[in-house]
Amino acid sequence: MKFLISNDDGFDAEGILALKKAASSFGEGTIVAPDQGYSGCGHRVTDKAPIRVESRPDDVHVVYGTPADCTRLGLVKLVKDPDWVLSGINHGGNLAGDIFMSGTAAAAREAAISGKKAIAFSQYIHLELSPPNWERTTLWTRHVLNVLFDKELKPGQFWNVNFPALPEGDVTPEIVFCRHDTSQVDLTYEWSADGAMYRGVYRERGRRPGCDVDVCFSGKISVTRIQLDASAE
C-alpha cells in the first residue's frame, strides 16, 4: 500500500515519525507535513498566497502551510494515488469537540472530502504520567492499522483514533469502537489586565459513558467513525 502521511505538529515531530514507522509494516509512506506546529488551526486552508514546498530526503515534503494544505498538495502533486491518508500521531488527545479545532483531524477530513480513505491518530497525554513512549505508541498504531484496514469505511468518512495515557508496561490496550462525545467543554477562563486565559483542565472534561472521551480516559483505544455529512435530520 501507499500512504500520504501528515500531521499538525510539524514534519519532524516524534509522533509523525512513529506513524511512518508503523505504516512501513504495510507499505510505503511519504511525509507531507507542515514546517512548524499548527495545533488548533482547524480546517484552515491557504488560498490567497503561494504555498512553498521543500522536498527533502527520505520521502519528506515540508509544506509552509496548514495540515489541510498538506493533504491537498499531497493528493494533487506530491503523492500519486495513495491508498490511505494517515494523520498524526498528534501530541495530545483529539476527543469529542476537539476534532473541529484539530489540524490533525483536518488533514484526514480533507482526504475524505477528496474521496480518499483516512485515519487521524492522537496520543492523549496525562500531565501526571510520564511523557509518551513513542516506541510503544508505534506498536499500538501498527495494531490499529492492522484492524482498520479490514474495516468498512464508506465514502465521506474517516477514522479518528485516540491512544490512552498509561503507565509504562507491555500491555496493548483494548480497541473500542465508539461514538463521538458531544459533552460541553469546561469554559474556565482566568481574567487579568492582559485579557482572558483559558484554564480548563483537559482530563476533567465532561464525558458520556461509552463515548470516545470515556473510552480513552478509561485506558482503552477509542476508534470513532467520523462522517462529513453534518446535516441534522
UniProtKB/TrEMBL annotation:
SUPFAM superfamilies assigned to the protein according to its UniProt record, in alphabetical order: SurE-like
Catalysed reactions, semicolon-separated: a ribonucleoside 5'-phosphate + H2O = a ribonucleoside + phosphate
GO MF annotations, alphabetized: 5'-nucleotidase activity; metal ion binding
Keyword line: Hydrolase, Metal-binding
Domain of life: Bacteria
Domain Survival protein SurE-like phosphatase/nucleotidase: 4-180
EC number: 3.1.3.5
Family label: Belongs to the SurE nucleotidase family.
Protein name: 5'-nucleotidase
Lineage: Bacteria, Pseudomonadati, Planctomycetota, Planctomycetia, Planctomycetales
